[in-house]
Amino acid sequence: MNLMRRLTKQLHVLDHRIGRLSPRRRVLVEMRTPVYQAVLGPVCEAIAEEITDASVFYTSEYPDRIRPLVGSARFITHAQAEWTRFDLYLNADPWAAARLRRCARRINFFHGVAGKYDLDRPAGLPMGFEYYDRVAFINRDRMQRYLDAKLVTDRQAALVGYPKLDRLATGSIDVRAVRESLGFTNRRPIALYAPTYSPASSLHLAGTEIIQALASIGFNVVIKLHDRSFDSDARYTGGIDWRARMRSLERHGHVRLTEMPDACPLLAAADLMVTDHSSIGFEYLVVDRPLLIFDAPGLIEAARINPEKVALLRSAATVVATADQLIDAARDAVAMPERLSAARRRVADDVFFEPGTATARALELVRQMLQPHPRPFAKLSRESQHVGGRIA
Containing domain of residue 304, as a range? Predict the structure, then answer.
């Protein structure tokens, strides 16, 4: 058995050396569901723009959902990818990895910060990080937890931040264009309702009432559900067709359901956000506008959320438990948007490492992994991240 393992390793080394004879580097990106386009999209765009000898391809266990987003020419099924040679594999979900027999190196990027499903208490979780050369962390706290649990090594761990939020943090999203794309031609303020997925979430508890309450007091309402709320699996939806139910609430120019993979344009346009407990709630703090938490008492246990993360998000938000409380809190938030501003900025700084500059660090990590002998990852200084508006 040991002889076979040594032989297999030597064959892998030989195969990768042969692959490097080609002038092109091949990068495969795992996109399990559309939301991963938002998480990994900025990195893929940077690779395409900055690494001229790299070709980017995409794969997913749900081809029908992802192929239209990336184009058939760049999409490869899991079966096709298994025996194809790649120089680098990017993934944002270690539980949904393609089986790759000829891949030289791998990077995992985290896709959330909410601390759900025991991800903040990683000891004992079958994460599979041993297969990754680098693990890109969104913040220092999560990285230290995984180092302490010995799920990653010092060499693997890379403090990168969250590339998904860079455009949001730098204010480069055209808010007027976002409003127009939603069909909002009036000047009413926008309320974004973005619950997490779970039969214990606020969507199941009072989703319709929340939307109707916000609309009744003059908000334009955007409904942004989690990908899993559109899944056919009853574990995520409780057997409810949420797409049909939310569409029944739509009102032209006033209430709109959107399924855009990247929520950042919505976060940039919203004057107020309502959620229960989710990464998107933390993301909204980057724009420093009022956040309301609709309390869903069973969600913390059902989603195995770290109580520390629950307290952290709520420290920067107003918590309500009924539609009437929501109406009062929403009115107060519009009247005094500066309230809790200091707390919002503090929490955003805690959970997102230097937002606005993460893509530059992610690209540097990719560059290193495409080199024959990558060195340990070092965080770029602020001064070296951009030169003349381009990634240095």
Answer: 172-351
